[in-house]
Model the fold of this input.
Amino acid sequence: MCSCTNKISWSVQLMSACGCSLIYVLGNVIPWRSLALLGNILLLASSIVPCLVHFFGLFFIPESPRWLVKIGRHKEVYATLQRLRGKNVDISHEAANIKVKFKFYLIETEFLMYLKTVGVGLMSLQQLGGVNSITYYASSIFQEVNFSRKVGTISLAIIQIPTVVASVILTDKSGRRPLLMVSATGMCLSGFIIGLSFWLQNLQQWKEISSNLVYIGILVYILTHLIGMGPLPTVLMSEIFPINVKGSAGSLLIFVNNISEWIVTYSFNFMMEWSAAGT
Done:
């Protein structure tokens, strides 16, 4: 189950990178109002069609065996597993394994608060690190330091997809924790470089160098975010929680993630007016 969820998480991250790259490229040839209209039309279409397919598909899929175990409908577990695995497959061992694991998870309730703290921390830091402020306002940031918006946004479009693919490979080889540490360190250092560059701009010193430093800082920031803090919190969310709280914990973490994103996106322009270097 975790393996399947991980693949979905990586797929979402990859599709998100493709979408951002496409918008960055189109933004250099289409006026922003037309781009906003096109984006909303595509968003509406991409939301309605999958939802309709999903709605009708729900009538043909069986209940989750783990959910059936959770609510005590043990007899239906075998029928569901047999339908999922095939008529000629022996599912007795898998059914017994699900029941044993569920009992084991119920014993570990004292550990849940720690897991929720880790999950809330990762999902909030994913957004409070400021990635969406850079993603949404990259063009304005480049313009503010007199760097070519076209070069900057196209560079961001080019690096995103290969970085996500590299992240998938690195995660299995190096592990989650090392990638998160490298990612957080890279984001911190690149954020410092961007802030230092704006500070130099305010002092009217090394303008050409500082504008190039902003460009390098933003590229490094996006690269390091995409290899760790971008996809991994969602992947970890699917791995760390036991079955009996996976649904409620996942809802809580997605709520925290979206609220954090809204705070960063809403406050960014006000903070930039206060102090670009400080922001």
